[in-house]
Amino acid sequence: MTGRLQLYDWLHTGDEAFAAMLSAIRAAKTSVRLEMYIYEASTIGDLFRDELVSAARRGLDVRVLIDALGSVTLPYDFWESFRKAGGQFKWFNRLQFNRLGLRDHRKILVCDDEIAFIGGFNIAPEYEGDGVTKGWRDLGMVIRSELATDLSKAFDMMFELADFKPRRFTKIRKARHQVSVVTEKSKLLLSSPGFSFNLMKNALYHDLARADHVKIVSAYFLPTRRLRREILRIRKRGGRVQLVLPAISDVPFSQMATRSLYRRLLMTGIEIYEYQPQILHAKMILMPQAAYVGSSNLDVRSFHSNYELLVRINEPGFISEGESLFAEILGHSKAIDLAEWKQSRTFFSKLMGKWAFLVLAKLDPFLTRQQLKLLT
């Protein structure tokens, strides 16, 4: 962070994010709420748990919500000391086949309803480092505005929903299916599984429709047809589109689907770069009028199957710092040349890409629809 107590500050690396988050837990006076998709039993995981135990022993209201699939390797008794200290813990959506695909992908820490942390960082060893010489490359944000209170309320809703009791699930989904909280310089966008109106997509469509350029860093890039169309329209208006995607992915199947789009995107003049030093896990969208940060990837699963969040910031200083961050990430990336890309693609790689696209863009949403029908 910059050291200034601004309402919104970027978190540049995992090391920076973890240090700031742990410091906020230690300084908390009334409450701590932690929501994670992946939480690993590890040195960093133990450190966070111990600080949460300490906060509970100080008499704070401390609650932890962890996705059951994302953290499937985490032992159940990992949180025993936390429970004994008075903390409240829940698994989000315990593993059950008829609702397996509906996941809580949000990453949130809120302390005292006053300071909040969001982004792509999970609590696991691979996020430690600077994203260049060590650890996955990721980004996040610290929030010191009224949005922290709204994120705390969003956590409480998810904590209530976690057990997926049918009546409660239906009631909460109807009441809080999509949530948008607007302040002078920001907008909090919360989404849940479904195929009706989506606040995150709608906000992106609106901004892309009036942008003369867009810069995107995305770990998993498989946008909906309309989102691809809005991005292509920027090029048709003579604008510039730059995508930074992973050269090394923790989900190769997703990368195959993404790469199946390269040829068509490159032929329109869209610039594609692949981040070289480490696995890229960051999520950032920059336009002249706004910066987007959060847990959501630009893929079909994030828009239709997961509980996600994005924060839209329209503060010029924050956008400017985002531009500097993008330039730094771009400096570690390799441009994809259309002619070289065409030449490098084998029949097998094309076939695998089409298959991966079919599974992730068509089959996965179909399964989500079936699971939602069973629950509602």
Task: Explain how this protein is built.
The chain is α/β, with parallel strands linked by helices and 376 residues long. It folds into 2 domains: 167 residues, Endonuclease Chain A (Endonuclease, Chain A), CATH 3.30.870.10; 170 residues, Endonuclease Chain A (Endonuclease, Chain A, 2-Layer Sandwich), CATH 3.30.870. It has 13 helices and 19 strands. The strands form 3 sheets. Strands 5, 9, 10, 11, 13, 14, 15, 16, 18 and 19 form a 10-stranded mixed beta sheet that branches. A 7-stranded mixed beta sheet has the order 1-8-7-6-2-3-4, with helices on both faces. It has a two-stranded parallel ribbon with strand order 12-17. A hairpin with a 3-residue loop joins strand 9 and strand 10. Helix 6 packs parallel to helix 7. The termini are far apart. The model has no long low-confidence stretch (mean pLDDT 93).
